[in-house]
From TrEMBL:
Keywords: Signal
Keyword Signal set for record: yes
Signal peptide from the UniProt entry: 1-19
Single GO cellular component term: extracellular region
Protein name: Regulatory P domain-containing protein
Amino-acid biosynthesis as UniProt keyword: no
Amino acid sequence: MVFKHALGALALFLPAITCKEMAVNELLAAEQYDSGIVHESIMAKKMSTWDQERAAGLMSSSLYPELGYTPCKNGFAQAIVGDANNTFKCSNTDLYHFLPHEALGSSMGEGSSSWGWTSDSGREFVAIGQADGTAFVEISKEGKMVYLGRLPQYSVPSIWREIRAYKHYMIIGSEAVGHGIQIFDMTKLLDLDPASPKTFDAKVDLTGHFNELPVGRTHNVVVNEEKGYAVSVGAAPRNSSCAAGLIFIDLTDPSKPTTPGCAAQDGYVHDAQCLVYRGPDKNYQGKDICYGYNEDTLTIYDVTDKTNTTIISRTSYEGASYTHQGWVLDVNNQEFLLLDDELDEERGAGPAADGFPVTFIWDIRSLEAPKQTGIYKSKTKSIDHNQYVIGGLVYQSHYGAGLRVLDISSVPSNPTGSDVCEVGFFDIYPEDDASPGGGLVEFVGTWSSYAYFKSGYVFINTIERGAWVAKMTSKTCPPPPVCNADNCLRAFRSNSVEGRLAESQKFCGEFTKLLVTDVSVVPGYVKSACVGNVIERASSACACLPTPSS
Ligand SMILES: *[C@@H]1O[C@H](CO)[C@@H](O)[C@H](O)[C@H]1NC(C)=O
Ligand SMILES: *[C@@H]1O[C@H](CO)[C@@H](O)[C@H](O)[C@H]1NC(C)=O
Ligand SMILES: *[C@@H]1O[C@H](CO)[C@@H](O)[C@H](O)[C@H]1NC(C)=O
């Protein structure tokens, strides 16, 4: 009874939890989502953005020089001092290396997904998605990428190339018709000489090739290594027999991939995570579960029998616009997961009404009735994309706002998300930093990252520029700013000057976006009150102003 009493007392102090999960609007689902209208509109928007970038020459590697180790100091990594295009906003994250796509053997550039593999002896390798194939690098002990070679695309190029590891193989899918899924053995890289990078044959050098997709396209690939299978998701067209759902690929013999069946019941699956269930829901202990991110819903499948899968639940949520991807907090105790929506910022839907990215927190302690318990809102405008949970941190790719790392260890005790904080970030796309909110709601910048390496090196792949290696310098959220009411801060919010606070907020809104070293841009009252290091003092004062209310 003591236990019960203690729980009751604790409940009083828990923040109020508002649940935002919703039943599926079946009419909207049928008209907008099952038909493919929404997904086709996102793909069309992306293609038009990338066509414009191509036309403007922005996919050209000649714009992007190789960059070396650059520490993050006072919020900026100045990889080329005085060059705004090579000065990156950052927090708790240093840059180790950047190489443009061309230096990684690509003639087209246009980066996408990536995944890593660690050899038995601890060497760290990355497979990097590009429109015209997969580039391979080893990350040296010093954090430098060493280019080893590439595997060209199987059929025709496509910017959509998704890669996951299965043991020492890379599973490579593409939206290109006729591509199928390439299965490449990473141990082929172990003895390559970086002095003469090797271009593998897209067909002959594969361990296996899965060609039982309807037209050879797949939007993404997923792996359940423990159970020895991969999954193709979003294999168009939607009117094929598997409905672009989960197409299982048995990898028992990677040289002869076969399909035992598919799960078509909820139509198109955009991304998924398939795991042996370990968690509190007694009905599903040890079952083979897929968490599906299905455009308008979180759909949870029991796929234990690949010839007869069932849907456990299908749940929508406030703001659902394009349910994109997600990851469970703890694969060994599946109680919570994080979900990203790729269209809510652009549509201004639900909690993304202001265009700032939303991470949706779900309580999945009941697989049959998942609850959407809270959110985390990023403070930089962009679109949140792929995310992977490692330990108590989630590594997110926010297109133009770069790599964003959140401490989510508080979620099990406070699933409202109010205690989630940003540990660090590295903004690989300075081009949009001066925009309102610090970024653009556009499909530019980074697609994915890979942060599972024991060395702590985080690999980041970007659409326009190329590949990056970064490393966190701390895994603790920065403390709130220390705000001493000195002359400088007092001048910023002086009550005796009409409109001064608003004027300062406006100044700070611009001043903190880009690295400022020129004292002449600072207003007179700031210069005279913040004597000494004007720029540094002004920037501290800016961190201590209340956020403007409008
Ligand atoms: C920065 O890049 C943009 C293109 O993104 C270009 O127009 C501009 O000239 C570059 N600025 C510098 C200083 O190189
Ligand atoms: C499936 O849809 C495509 C268009 O995406 C169409 O050309 C084809 O005829 C359809 N096939 C069937 C069997 O309905
Ligand atoms: C499929 O699974 C359902 C429920 O799990 C079961 O009732 C049904 O008999 C199964 N069908 C086949 C053909 O195995």
